[in-house]
Structure formats: C-alpha cells, structure tokens
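Section handout 9: paired folding examples.
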Amino acid sequence: MSVIRPMRADAVRNRRKILDAANAQITARGPEVGMDEIAQAAGVAVGTLYRHFPTKTDLVAAVVAEYVLVVADDAQESLARARAGSSRAADEVIGFLTRVAESSADHHAVKAAAQGLGVEGHGDKSDESRASAALAELITIGQADGDIRAEVTVDDIYLLMATAPTDQPAPVRQRWLDLILPGITTPSGWGRVGREAAAEPVGRAARKSPAW
C-alpha cells in the first residue's frame, strides 16, 4: 500500500507562488498567457511549474478549484453571522451575491481560460456542497424573517450568479444588483435589506474574514 507523502515546505511555497502568479497573469494579460511567463512571474523555474502542473489545463483547474473553495468559505461565514444574529440572512445573501459578482469580474479572464481549455466543473464537489448547504440555510432563515420571498431557492441564487454582468463596469454590476433585489426580497423585506451588505470581494484576502 503506497503512502502519500505531504509536500515539503518549499514545494508548498512554490505551489502557492505559481497559483498566485497564474491568477494575476491570466487576469492581467488574458487567457493566452504562456506557462513560461507564469513561471517567470512566480519566480520559479519552468521545470518546477511543470512538476506541480503538467499542463496549463491542470494549472487553470487548480486556480478555479481554489476560487470555489474560497466561495464556499464565504458562504459558510455568511451563515455563521446570520446564525449568531449579528446580521440579517437577507443581507448576507445579497452581500454574498455582490462579492461573488465582483470577484467573478476580476477573474473573468480566468473563467475564459477555463472554458477555452475545457476545464470541467467548478472545483471540489465537497466545496460546492458546502456553499449550497450554507446558502440553503441562509435562504430559509431569511424566509422565516419575512425578508426573502418564499419561492426563492438555491438554484435561483446560482442562476443569478451565472447571469451577473461580470464583463461590464462596476456601475452596470451595481445596476444589475438593484434590479434583482426586488425579485429576491419580499415587499416588506426590501426596506430592511441593507444596501451595504457587500464587504470585501471574494479572494485570498477574504479568507481572513468567498460560482461563477
């Protein structure tokens, strides 16, 4: 029986640098940026990059999987705040939607790269399940509060996430949010839902506090 050995500390650091560089380079320069350029930006040898990620598809898939993990963490943290009573569930749902839309806009080129390379799925299925479960409970709490419409489901939230104008400037994304809010909230809840529910966009910085 083979034993999977944990990565050495330097390998973990190199992997982190490569993922950060891939995210930044694809976002800044577009889906066609080369592996050599990503390795240079990461400060590692090309061979080191290929040892971690044999193909560009593998690399982009890892970037996408990490993004989904952060989104799942954000959903669970949103739920924790609602459970604790420090915020309203409807505010957390709207904040989550806003952060994901903003982060998806930042990662638009990564999404294009994933589609172009045929990257399947959106990361670890367990992370998708965590996000779905947290959103479902948030919706249930918001419905019990009388803030979220009774017919709203998790699938509706994912539909909204999929149709967010992530390739448009910030004012257009804000207009999108203004238009969808009445479809999520009840007439009485509309007046209670905070307009500043969104916090920091989804990303590595948000872990201290994140489908397309």
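Moving on to protein 2 of 2.
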Amino acid sequence: MNFQTTLHWLYVAGMTIGALHFWSLSRDPKGVPQSEYLVAIFIPIWSGLAYMSMALGQGKVELAGRIVHYARYIDWMVTTPLLLLTLAWTAMQFVKKDWTLIGFLMSTQIVVITTGLIADLSAQTWVRYLWYICGTAAFLVVLWGIWVPLRAKARGQGSELARLYQKLTTYFTVLWIGYPVVWLIGPSGLGLVNQDIDTLLFCILPFFSKVGFSFLDLHGLRGLQNRQSETGFDRAADRVLHFLGVVNAGWIPASGASRSQTRRRSPEGQKP
C-alpha cells in the first residue's frame, strides 16, 4: 500500500467516524432541526465513498503527464453546496429561510467546482488557467454571499447567533481559501509540490472543512439552544469557537439582544 492509498483510507476512516458522531448527536437533537443532522451525516458518507474509490485505484485518469483525480470533484460537486446550505441554515436559524439566496450560493458553488474540473482536464496550460480564473471569480461571489447577505441575516437575530456565525464563517473561509491555493501549487497548477503532498493536503482540507465544520456548527447550535446539559464534545467545540472569537475580536458590535430574545424567535426557525 503506497503513501497516497494509505492517506485515502485514513480519510475514509475519518469520514466514517464523523458520520457516526453526527448520527449519535441526532439521537438527542437538543432543539437543532433533524434536517441539519441528516445533511451533516450525508456529507462525510458521500465524501468517504468518493475517496474510497481513489483508495481502490479508481476515480482518476492520466492526462498530459498529470493525474487528474476526478473523484475529488464528484465529492466536492455534492458536498460543498451542502456545506453552504448548512452555513445558510445557521445564519437563518430563527427566521424564515431565504431559499432564493441559498439556491444562488449553492448553484454558484457548483460553477466553482465545474470550472475546476474543466481546468484540471485541460491539456493546454493557458486554457487551464483561464478556467481556474473563472472558478476563482465564482468563488469570490460565494465569499461575498456568506460575508455580506448571510452575515446580515445572522446579525438580525441576536448577538449570540451573530457571534457563532462569525466564528463559523471565519473557519469556513480560511479552509476554503486553501482549496484554490493547493490546486495552484500542486501538479494541476505550478507544480511546486509533488503528488504525495497534494494528496495529503487534499485529505487534510476536506476533513476539517467537512467533519470539522459540521462538528463546530452542530455543537455550536446545540449550545445556543440548550446550555443546561453540555457534553464533553460540546465543551471542546466551545473552546475552538472561543479561539475563533479571539481571532475575530471586535468584528461584531454588540447588538444588545439577549439569549431570551433569541430564543423567542426560535419557533419561526422551524419553518421551511
């Protein structure tokens, strides 16, 4: 078993553990809608299956002296829009969901992944970078969506939710910026790192982007809804979120909304 195969199998194991953890949380939802648990469970299952194909020597093709792992794009085509969906649900936790905005962000993210796949499958260097630039432009639109309209919705529902959303979005943004950076420095782009390092980075980034993000998101929402029965995992997530809050210190002005004000809005959050 070579280094890349080992990494892929370790990733599959990590996704399996993540899916099982989120399933266990769903048995005691603590006020968080079951739909959020279902999406959190589905994401690592789908991603784990995609990476299992690469561990088995499938999901990739050689093109112009490079190995294109198209199974990664099959993974990202499904999971990254779903991650945006969960972030949007958090931003609109206690208000009616704006499905027009959610649909726009999810469809734009599909453009990001599609252009990345076409870039990777392009033999000519200038064509590859043209598609890369198009994908990067679409990605900037996604970042605008999560930092401007979604953030505004979160800030309208009380300071606690606003702080949670700010921390999650910072975590989300830092990791997602890593994808185009790793693509650029890897064999698909400038070739500054070899295939082994590329595989390692594209195992670390998705793990923390998927399992890591969903862990913080679900435990953060559980703490927001019910602080009376925190578990060890809830406290661990709270410590990470606290660190992200230190990084974000001063970014969100106090809204003056109390926890009781936030909770009075929660029944509306159950609307589709």
